Amino acid sequence: MFGFILRRLGLLIPTFIGVSLVAFFFIRLLPGDPVLLLAGERGISPERYAELMHRFGFDLPLWQQFITYFTDLVQGDFGTSISTKKPIFTEFFTLFPATLELSFCAVIFAVVLGVPAGVIAAVKRNSWFDHTAMATALVGYSMPIFWWALLLIIVFSGMLGWTPVSGRISLMFFFPKVTGFMLIDSLLSGKAGAFQSAVSHLILPTIVLGTIPLAVIARQTRSAMLEVLGEDYIRTAKAKGLSPFRVVAVHALRNALIPVITTIGLQIGVLMAGAILTETIFSWPGIGKWMVDSIFRRDYPAVQGGLVLIALIVMGVNLVVDMLYGLVNPKIRHQR
Amino acid sequence: MKTMSRLLAATMLVAGLAGAAHAKTFVYCSEGSPEGFDPAPYAAGTTFDASSKPVYSRLTEFERGTTNVVPGLAESWDISEDGTVYTFHLRKGVKFHTTEYFTPTRDFNADDVIFSFQRQNDKNDPWYSYAGGTWEYWTGMDMPNLVKSVEKVDDYTVKLTLTAANAPMLANLAMDFASILSKEYADKLAAEGKQPDLNQLPVGTGPFQFVAYEKDAVIRYQAFADYWGGKQKIDDLVFAITPDASVRLQKLKAGECQLMPYPNPADVEALQTDDSIQLMSQAGLNIGYLAYNTMMKPFDDVRVRKALNMAINKKAIIDAVFQGTGQEAKNPIPPTMWSYNDNVQDDPYDPEAAKKLLAEAGVKDLSMKVWAMPVSRPYNPNARRMAELIQADFANVGVKVEIVSYEWAEYLKRGQDKARDGALLQGWTGDNGDPDNFLAVLLGCSGVGGSNRANWCNEEFNNLVVKASKVSDVAERTKLYEDAQVIFKKEAPWATIAHSTTYVPMSKAVIDYKVDPLGSHRFDGVDIAE
């Protein structure tokens, strides 16, 4: 197992270099630059433009800029935002817990509903439940996030008044951040009602962000289960006289879970994309919205630093998924 | 059961006490995050709403709800005969905020004024590059060329010497970039090596003092008890950052905030009839226009420009693009601005006359480009749609239009090119309420190849505008600007299209809010009914 982890870690180095390269050139491929955007309709004199480009170091040849950036990067310096003038690392990790908290809840939501739904749909294949669940999943998968979120807000916050419209916690509560995770901080604050408020603020964004992964996981679980249920060893298990529950839950599900775990891992990327819209609509102070704002401002350091940090996190998650995979199926860790 | 009822009684007691000490909290659903809390390095209204407006004061101020310049931290001022020396007499006994991170030991004085300006003007000042050295408005308003020196005469007198007379200077000093910061606080930060805090933890003399900012989520302020203008009626001011306009509206309706900026134009009609909301509006201090490139043929011929102006159906544009929330423009400055010349006759919408005039100019089978911005701006919510309407209007008079667009930064850059091919949709929102800020910036000869997108340099017009910037008598300036507008209309470097209307929806409980013609959102003087 140790050798397996080392091999996986070794693979991360070229990936990291590749990601830094892509992040650096991606934002520079977009037309326009941060100085022009700062000036707006007013325009800017060529002298002042040159002065500011020089100040930010954007007047140097690209390769030289890249070397400076990459050297800083490997020393752990992710640069300073042009817009807020704060270090990218601080900016990113101020916001990241909010995204992580929301994504985590969305994954839990998707797994807790998606896996059982998939299993039941497979076991009761072609029943009304199967058809309804799979049709719903298809609708969920094709749901435009923006529309879905507004619909939920209008119905549950506007018409019914059950949930707050947006934000992470009621403005009544004001306590220092300890972990950045509102669910934990609200408990630590010791203020009555704070935790409930944080939970109620999480409900709608969790549903919205979790909808697509839920649909994918449900469908994936169903097809994986169907495949496994047709295997010989399931027939053997049934023949042994095991209870139907044991057959499904232990013998079938455990094997069906392997592709499902991969799917869940892959959904992390989908979550990041979904987070951009979800965070914007629910005024959720996370990195999705921050990245988009940075791209619009052509805040080069923020975009490239943010992309590298996100990539590092996704790489970390994939590593963990691979290890889990190895745990679930010993064949995999011995193969390579 | 006994415990239960005791608990209930205790809860009620606490609730009652909380009610007695109830602080008036005003929640504003703001549209975005401030870039920082030092206004001077930035140019965004969102940043100013969160920094300069609540936290700071300036030597001169804009009177609430108007563009009138009134005394602020300067109680009075004298201007020399030739208009180049301004002597400001500073208000005494003005306190800076006492916060968790700073306790001032002295009142506001001339040192603070010198510090606030010098750091933007002097490249050798230790604070010049602390925030990247991007002093957007100081350079944008041409202050480096206008200001010769800022000197302290004594603790309560400051002398500002200009390189030439400049009438809009008093209005410039009321702008956000001219906010006065505490030198004592800056010195303390420098001594501790914490310079960036000047931009994160602000200290000013304004109506509200900064409490906390949770990035991209919430900003908290509290009323400053020793504010020189008197303590505010609300106790706590909270900005709930809510980027999406539909969500802002839902929050307002749900009572999660009391006021929101920038409603969707499509929602305005419903808001007007909504009993639970009061909707305030004001003509925005802006202009949306189509700038011909007067350096290129055939647009160097005034007849061609006039003809095209007559081909545009502005009413249809107001209905379709602004959904009725705007008004047709005939002058390059908005009607709420002083010196607006209402006697100017707009070019009528008359396709037949347009065709004739084009023929007279010898223009046949003209095909041209119309540039449409890729972004929504206050003066033009949907440039693409506007361009399509203009395309149809021009087709009616036999002119073929190709619509072009670029990504926003690229658009701004290419639009300034003197050799630009085609007419450009653009616009402007006023900075300081002075006509000079429109007429000189957008149409003066010095702006050719830059902010003058028509590349129009008319000697007669330019002389009037330059002269008006040098005299300080408002009546005389008004006359000069009125004459300049007549020349503008005669020469038609732009098709003036629309001035948009600003709408501010708020809860019925909000008392005495005034819509700022300069487009900012300020909460001094505002109250809420309980």
UniProtKB/TrEMBL annotation, chain A:
PROSITE patterns: ABC_TM1 (PS50928). It is found in: Cell membrane. The keyword Lipid metabolism does not apply. Keywords: Cell membrane, Membrane, Transmembrane, Transmembrane helix, Transport. It is a multi-pass membrane protein. Its main location: membrane. GO terms for molecular function: dipeptide transmembrane transporter activity. This is Peptide ABC transporter permease. It comes from Pleomorphomonas diazotrophica. The lineage of its organism: Bacteria, Pseudomonadati, Pseudomonadota, Alphaproteobacteria, Hyphomicrobiales.
From TrEMBL, chain B:
The keyword Transmembrane does not apply. Residues 1-23 form the signal peptide. It is found in: Periplasm. This is ABC transporter substrate-binding protein. Its main location: periplasm. InterPro entries: Peptide/Ni-bd (IPR030678), SBP_5 (IPR039424), SBP_5_CS (IPR023765), SBP_5_dom (IPR000914). Residues 68-448 form the Solute-binding protein family domain.
